[in-house]
């Protein structure tokens, strides 16, 4: 007599025992026992203990005296809380406009009920917070469908393990710049401009300044400081806040600034911010060496001031002598 098991969770076939010889599940402690009494026609296979992975088709097969093969198959149900299987959908990337199906496979008896929801509790594409079923169909996805998805399996025994996956939606970058910026040029003061850059994968960002000779690339230097931060999800998702600080604004710094966002397989996207001159100093305090609205005095002006002060002191001394 041969005992075999085709497991339900992974589809693997195991020959468990032949006659009274057990071939599987002997480590670390034997949990299978094949029993046959000499004068009995009964063949017995005992699972002790029974494992949740033992669920599947259990077959007893033998050959009779006429060399005919006889077998009997029964489905072995193991009452257990649900377990989400590794065959479920893992992290996945799709293009905006594609359709995708997320699959959550769960094992357990009684058969588990499966529920889908987003980790941030935002509505699914159907408009509902939760959706039942082992498959979640998303049609013509947009960037709003990206995020963490959870499936939870439950039955009468209890709640099983939770399965999470990340759905990333690739979309072309775009740029939003808040406003143009004004600043006086004769003060030791900075100006900064900010742009939100959206896109997935995260775009590569660069800044340029428009001059009479054309566009010149901007790097971190004594004149410029480029910074990038990831805003809180309540502000935006799949976005970067890029800030360009113009240090100690001078006349040569005025004009148009362009931010360029590039990502593989997508066209580049541009944004523009103009730095214009104002008569009054604006209090942009962004650079650590920023002194505030302090007027820049030339060496000639300082010399004239010293000369005037010397004349004033001489005049006072002259009056005191008389």
Describe the structure.
It is built from one helix and 24 strands. By secondary structure, it is mostly beta strands. It has three domains: 2-78, Sandwich (Immunoglobulin-like); 81-171, Sandwich (Immunoglobulin-like); 178-277, Immunoglobulins (Immunoglobulin-like). The strands form six sheets. Strands 9, 12, 13, 15, 16, 18, 21 and 22 form an eight-stranded mixed β-sheet that branches. It has a five-stranded antiparallel β-sheet with strand order 3-2-1-6-7, with no helix packed on it. The protein has a five-stranded mixed β-sheet with strand order 17-24-23-19-20, with no helix packed on it. Strand 1 and strand 2 (13-18) form a beta hairpin. The longest helix has 23 residues, at 299-321. The termini are far apart. The model is unreliable at 297-322 (pLDDT under 50). Residues 82-168 form the Ig-like domain.
List the helices and strands and how they pair.
Elements: E1 2-7, E2 13-18, E3 21-22, E4 32-36, E5 43-47, E6 56-63, E7 69-76, E8 80-84, E9 92-95, E10 100-103, E11 106-109, E12 113-118, E13 131-132, E14 135-138, E15 147-154, E16 159-177, E17 181-183, E18 191-200, E19 204-211, E20 214-217, E21 224-229, E22 239-246, E23 255-262, E24 269-277, H1 299-321
Parallel strand pairs: 9-16, 17-24
Antiparallel strand pairs: 1-2, 1-6, 2-3, 4-5, 6-7, 8-11, 10-14, 12-13, 12-15, 15-16, 16-18, 18-22, 19-20, 19-23, 21-22, 23-24
Domain Ig-like: 82-168
Keywords: Cell membrane, Disulfide bond, Glycoprotein, Immunoglobulin domain, Membrane, Repeat, Signal
GO cellular component, one term: neuron projection
